[in-house]
């Protein structure tokens, strides 16, 4: 797995089975996130034939501000994006 951090312009490489880092959107795809347990306030909007779903974490301790999923009409996830929290400079 590769985790890119835009603020530091760094890429971190790790084995997926060693990663418990839920900052990675991969956490959802691996079944480690539970939408009802982990998120509040869901917003969806059409994006062409797809739907973009934005979810806000319930916990203030979450290392991201929100997670976006683009879902196809066949219910396949085409894109996953997590907006990480960065320290303000």
Descriptive keywords:
6 strands; 89 residues; mainly beta; two-stranded antiparallel ribbon
The general outline is globular
- Count of domain modules: 1
Number of helices, where a helix is a run of at least 4 consecutive DSSP H or I residues: 2
Terminal CA distance reads 28 Å
Q: Mind summarizing the main beta sheet?
A: 4 strands, antiparallel
Spell out the helices and strands N to C: EEHHEEEE
Low-confidence stretches: none
Number of β-strand runs? 6
**Average pLDDT number:** 78
Strand content: over 45%
Helix content: under 10%
Radius of gyration: 14 Å
Output the structural class. mainly beta
Order of strands in the sheet with the most strands? 3-4-5-6
Task: Detail the topology: elements first, then pairings.
Layout: E1 2-5, E2 10-13, H1 26-29, H2 35-38, E3 39-47, E4 50-57, E5 64-71, E6 77-84
Antiparallel strand pairs: 1-2, 3-4, 4-5, 5-6
What does the model show?
The chain is mostly beta strands. The termini are far apart. The chain contains two helices and six strands; from the N terminus they run ββααββββ. The protein is globular. 9% of the residues are buried. It is 9% helix and 46% strand.
């Amino acid at each position: 797995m590769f985790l890119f951090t835009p603020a530091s312009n760094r890429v971190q490489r790790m084995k997926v089975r060693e990663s418990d880092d839920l900052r990675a959107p991969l956490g959802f795809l691996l079944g480690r996130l539970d939408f009802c347990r982990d998120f509040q306030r869901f917003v969806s909007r059409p994006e062409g034939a797809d739907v973009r779903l934005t979810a806000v974490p319930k916990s203030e301790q979450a290392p991201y501000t929100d997670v976006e999923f683009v879902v196809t009409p066949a219910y396949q996830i085409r894109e996953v994006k997590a907006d990480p929290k960065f320290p303000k400079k």
